[in-house]
Design brief:
This protein has helices spanning 2-12, 19-25, 33-40, 48-60, 64-85, 104-111, 124-133, 152-159, 186-195, 214-227, 238-242; strands at residues 90-94, 116-121, 141-146, 170-174, 202-208, 249-250, 275-281. By secondary structure, the protein is α/β, with parallel strands linked by helices. Helix 6 links the parallel strand 1 and strand 2 (116-121). Helix 4 (48-60) runs antiparallel to helix 10. The N and C termini lie far apart (49 Å). The chain binds S-adenosylmethionine (SAM). S-adenosylmethionine is lined by residues 33-34, 37, 71-72, 75, 94-97, 121-123, 126, 148-150, 174-176, 179.
């Protein structure tokens, strides 16, 4: 079954990568960030190595499951707010993750059925599922791009097939920037992406926090990094996460924990979520 999933993707891929390099990337013997996250969210698209890593992380930081659920709730609130109250009709969601309830296109298209969404991820299994399950409503559109967030020019060019880059776009970077090490310049990557979007665009970020429950977060990150295939996670403090919004108009309530970002009246508010998040407008 595990090979079947990857095999399906190899047949469907339109990314242009050769089959050998695609197959090399689907290594189910090592944990992968997308599939560990899927396990925490109660999904079924994960393998034994992912489940073991996820359980080890839960042992080190028992609140992690509530934390990632709070992140998904933030995603939905941010998209609903931008689509419903700020009139944003285009979303560029990088580091999409495996399909989960209330995805960006579902929330955006419930505000405006004509909303357009481009999903970007560099994991072949994520893209296989996205193509199959993240299907646009008839009036809007969704596209799926196989690219690395560290390649802004590639992403912007591909996004331009679906989005009008002369009109505002919400750039969504949720729980992905920690997978970009400092040496690869995550702040510069965000600046380059924003440089390709017009004034009136928005940046939405969530990022694991180094300075909330710091001991358990550090222990969880150390354990995850021993198991993760590919780039290791770098957790960052409030100051470093706030720097992603430099030069932008930060929306109220600023860079906060997800349950504090414009919560609905009935939303549960788990204490001490180990994530910083925020949204800002490009002037
Ligand atoms: C923890 S999941 C977050 C999913 C979703 N954004 C959310 O917040 O619910 C991280 C995702 O980022 C993707 N990812 C990791 N490194 C990436 C990179 N360099 N470029 C693009 N996507 C990346 C992973 O494949 C995974 O799907």
């Amino acid at each position: 079954m595990e090979c079947w999933v990857a095999g399906q993707w190899l047949q469907r891929s339109a990314s242009g990568r050769d089959k050998a390099s695609q197959a090399a990337q689907v290594d189910v013997r090592r944990a992968h960030s997308a599939r560990v996250y899927d396990y925490w969210l109660g999904g079924k698209d994960n393998f034994a190595a992912d489940r073991e890593a996820a359980q080890e992380a839960i042992a080190a930081s028992p609140g992690i499951v509530e934390d990632v659920r709070a992140n998904r709730a933030f995603l939905a609130r941010a998209v609903r707010f931008l689509a419903g109250e700020r009139g944003v009709r285009q979303f560029l969601d990088i580091g999409t993750g495996l399909p989960a309830a209330a995805g960006t296109h579902e929330v955006a298209q419930s505000a405006d059925p004509a909303a357009r969404v481009v999903y970007v991820d560099n994991d072949p299994i994520v893209l296989a599922h996205a193509r199959a399950m993240m299907v646009s409503g008839p009036d809007g559109s969704c596209d799926y791009v196989d690219a690395d967030v560290r390649d802004p020019a590639v992403i912007l060019k591909a996004a331009g097939r679906t989005l009008d880059l002369g009109q505002p776009v919400a750039l969504m970077l949720l729980l992905v920037l920690h997978l970009i090490p400092d040496a690869d310049g995550p702040h510069e990557v965000v600046r380059s992406l924003l440089a390709g979007l017009p004034a009136g665009s928005y940046l939405v970020v969530s990022h694991p926090a180094a300075d909330i429950r710091p001991d358990s977060v550090a222990e969880m990150t150390r354990k995850m990094n021993q198991r993760l295939k590919g780039p290791k996670a770098t957790v960052r403090g409030h100051d470093q996460v706030s720097r992603f919004f430099d030069g932008l108009e930060l929306l109220e309530p600023g860079v906060v924990q997800p349950p504090q970002w414009r919560p609905g009246p009935d939303e549960p508010a788990p204490p001490d979520v180990t994530i910083w998040c925020g949204a800002a407008r490009k002037p």
